Prior knowledge:
Elements: H1 14-28, H2 37-59, H3 71-77, H4 86-115, H5 118-133, H6 139-150, H7 159-197, H8 200-203, H9 207-225, H10 230-255, H11 267-270, E1 274-277, H12 293-312, E2 315-318
Parallel strand pairs: 1-2
Amino acid sequence: FNSLSFEPFNTADPRVIQALKEFYQDFFNEPTTDTEVRKLIRSLQEKAKTLQETLKTNLRLANRYPFLANLQGVIERLDVLQNPGQDYYTTVLPNENDAWLTLKEDQIDPLLTFMNGQKRVIYDELLDFITRKKPDLNPEQLERLQSALNDPLIYLDNRLQQAKVVLTQIEIDLRMELEDQRKQALARIEHLQQQMQQMPEFAQISSEQQAQLNSRFNQIRDIVQNQELTVSIRDKIGEFERYQYPQLLTAMHNMIPTRSPGEEQEIEETINVVYEHLDRIPIAFSKNVLENEADVTDYVEAVRTVLLEAIRANKRINL
């Protein structure tokens, strides 16, 4: 006769099954229909693996969201739910239930809520705003926004909502400053154009040449209108006034037609004139600080000397 062997069949304690089902519900935020120990354990392991992969995906974004580095320890901890045998789930896990739920409530849920909700949108607004507008931010504004981003617990409670209030006010302030700077720049362009049009040389060139010169002012107006940074507007208008505007005046002077042969010409009309902005004419002076009347006298004389040399070299100086 063939010998038969029997192994004892252990029926799981219904209280263990109920405890596993409750843990599944509480930890993964969804119920399970499994009623057998082995199926429950398999479901727990699969859900732990899925959660771990989700956290790994988020951890890859830690460069943008530094506080996500906290997920590293959680990810490692989730290995425990995937590898042990049945005894862990039936005897050890019930005693660790509170620790697991604390881990979920303190670290997993807040970070996943952040990544999947409106808080992440606000954080991105803060980060992108600083990236775009940093040149326009004063030290106090920058410090207030940066301190929010540097907060390792910024994703908790209403901290980001408070930061959003600060951001909104700074946006309003910068927009007002931007439009004020744009208005000033456009007014300056208009002044320079009128200044050019009132010069005697402007009346001596053709209407086509006048239109050519005027078009350059339209170009700088368009550039100013398209700027989204106050510092950029200042840079553009400063560059135009120091470099491009003198070049336009020089070009205008060279457009003046020469007189017919036989007509008398003044010396001024036969020489090549170059316009330069005062900022581009270097003043050599031995001191960096004027301390007394003598220093002022010496500096004024140095300026006078340099400017006279420029005039004698056929330069016209824009102030």
